[in-house]
Write a structure and sequence with these properties.
Length: 236
């Protein structure tokens, strides 16, 4: 008979309702082994890239679940990812019409954001031959963007560059960290061939540096133009 008192979790739990949820994080090898030995149903979460304790209502706890690609953040708000749509033009203009948002981007501010320019950029974002672009939404409304750029060079076929931005009204709310964390997990979950992500940060953007470091990105020095380079690997 298994001994539940030897639980490797921070608290000894006797009731199923007290087990951590999938969003409390993936299990390490010792925790996974203990759960299997004690008959605790597990599920593989492709978003977090690891094994978690299945929800009580899971129909097939050992199968890969079809979890929504989103993350709960403060006050029951939901951060999620989806493609930009034609009807997002108004939000797109509101967000990217602010020159401060362009301050830390690779591209220079194009000037006033017209309806025509916004529609053109949304159309370009839908092209998937060299990048993968997703709108970041909060409570269903766009607040920013994540972008994966592929084909950095011939020697880096397993690498993509992650870039992202948030509308200025959403700065300093902890959303940048959630965006980077979820964008990173989404990238690895969506692209099985992807082994490494790189991100470049403007030298005057310490907030982005903090977000990347908190998620687990490693500092790889500076480019000749002063931009700081960060790297994370699939198994980090």
């Amino acid at each position: 008979m298994s001994d539940r008192t030897s639980s490797p979790f921070s608290k000894g739990r006797d009731e199923a309702s007290d087990w951590p949820s999938r969003w409390d994080g993936i299990l390490d090898l010792r925790q996974k082994t203990w759960c299997e030995a004690n008959g605790i149903p597990l599920a593989y979460d492709p978003l977090q890239i690891g094994w978690v304790i299945a929800e009580k209502e899971a129909q097939c706890p050992n199968a890969v679940p079809s979890a929504p690609l989103s993350w709960k953040v403060k006050c029951d708000r939901e951060l999620a990812f989806r493609r930009w749509k034609a009807e997002d033009v108004g939000d797109y203009i509101r967000l990217l019409g602010d020159p401060e948002v362009w301050r830390y981007m690779h591209e220079a501010w194009p000037g006033a954001m017209s309806d025509t320019l916004a529609r053109s950029l949304i159309d370009i974002s839908a092209l998937d031959d060299h990048h993968d672009v997703l709108a970041v939404t909060l409570d269903g409304r766009p607040i920013g963007q994540m972008r994966l750029a592929f084909g950095l060079d011939e020697s880096s076929r397993d690498t993509a560059e992650l870039s992202y931005w948030l509308g200025r009204e959403h700065w300093q709310q902890g959303l940048g960290h959630d965006l980077v964390r979820q964008a990173t997990k989404r990238a690895f979950a969506d692209h099985s061939w992807l082994y490494r992500l790189v991100a470049f940060v403007h030298p005057d953007n310490p907030a982005s540096v903090r977000c990347l470091r908190r998620v687990g990105y490693h500092d790889r020095g500076h480019r000749d133009d002063g931009w700081q380079c960060f790297v994370i690997y699939r198994d980090s």
